[in-house]
Design goal:
With 471 residues, the chain is mainly beta. The chain has five helices and 31 strands. Strands 2, 3, 5, 8, 10 and 11 form a six-stranded mixed β-sheet that branches. The protein has a five-stranded antiparallel β-sheet with strand order 1-4-9-6-7, with helices on one face. Strands 12, 14, 16, 17 and 18 form a five-stranded antiparallel β-sheet that branches. It is elongated, with a radius of gyration of 33 Å.
Length: 471
Amino acid sequence: MNSTMKYVVLIGLIMVVVFGVTIISINVETPGLDIPVDSKDTVSGVPLSFSMTAMVFDPAPPEDKWPQKYFQGFYEIKDEQVPIPFWFQNRNSVPVRLSVTGRSCTACTRARVGIVPAEALRTFKKQAAMAALVQGALPVPDLATVLPAVALFDSMKFQELEFDQPGSGVDIPAADADGAPTLGVFQMMVKVNIIGPKPLHAMTGMRVGNGPPTPLQFDTVVLGVQPCLVHPKSVPLGELPEGAAEKTGTVVCWSATRGFEDFPPPTATAGGKDPFIHLGAPVKMTDVELSRFDAELGRDGQHVRAISGYTIPYTVYRRLPDAVTVPPGTPREPDIGPFERFIDVAGVGNQAYRVPVTATVTGLVNLTDGKQVDFEKSFATAYGASIEKTLASSRTDLALEVLADETTPRYLKATLSEPRVEAGRKLWTLKVTVPPNACSGPLPPDSAVVLRGKTGGEVQKVRVGVKGAGR
């Protein structure tokens, strides 16, 4: 989380508690209890008035749910604990003893309580009120309110709560003589040590005087993430027929935990320096673009809040523009058949992602039946198998030949019949053979017969995928 967000969180939580705008009056509202310390009466209700008892990330919280607006929910995997705050008031004329009775994760959760000193709270109210006279009823997060808020938070003295000693606890001071409640915070200290969501809870007991303890459970869900993430995970482009325009789009490298000051631009390269895919320089996203990106991920079922991010523009060419210079002999069109490239993205935290870019290049020549040679039924390994398929092209001047050295796996044998012309199309019979005892189990996923096509002065390769399995 960047420094600006930290201040906004702090102010958002403290100001609404102090001014009583929203959060103390929602969720767990308990009237003040006026019970003598030595009273034998049974206490009813919740002795402390908490703003809420569950803190979860909500990408679009209602206006009256201030804490969820600022609870980022996403944390990097680190060997340290992060505080999940639950603010409260003691409105009673007597102290309330707060203790912990259980937790869902003994290895990753501890708890502590902080009390805002009465004098520090009075000082903060005066300073914030002066800012309010200038800026309005609720001061905005600027220097006039940040400094008093930071000072208020720094004035708090935290005490650890011992889960292994249920009888121990922390006494929350009573409201002062004028009835002003004591303000404090119960913090679940959580260690985020796994990628993905991690639901946690802590159980507490609150006691007023000699009454029985009132149980109250606090819940949270934290999500462990890498410092940088990439979206989308893959770029499927469908078919690229002859004459198709270039395909453009962006890959986003973003962070749910770091601001731009801690999240420099990533490096991005097109795998193999392929001329048919071009990448632009990463572009810093604006606040509006980040909000739109959040909404886009939400539609995909990923409810997040991106703090920073960069777009990486890409262009995929079906045919290289004439303005692009390539070495002599380099084809200006990709091979016919599967188009499989990738974009490598490297960001902070030694994070590296490979984004596949896939398509099917069509046009020069195609199978008349399906997109690949499929043996359909498994064949006996000891005997091998052969299959014939028809290739067709509208280019009657096309010449085809098998490139045996580039066919994979090398044991695949492929032959082409003499061409024939029917109904204005040029046809070939492609025969693919798996020799005896060459294949046991499925053929490798990259199995393909490679052809070379010549039309006029241009040369283009054709990859025909092969699928099958020996038994």
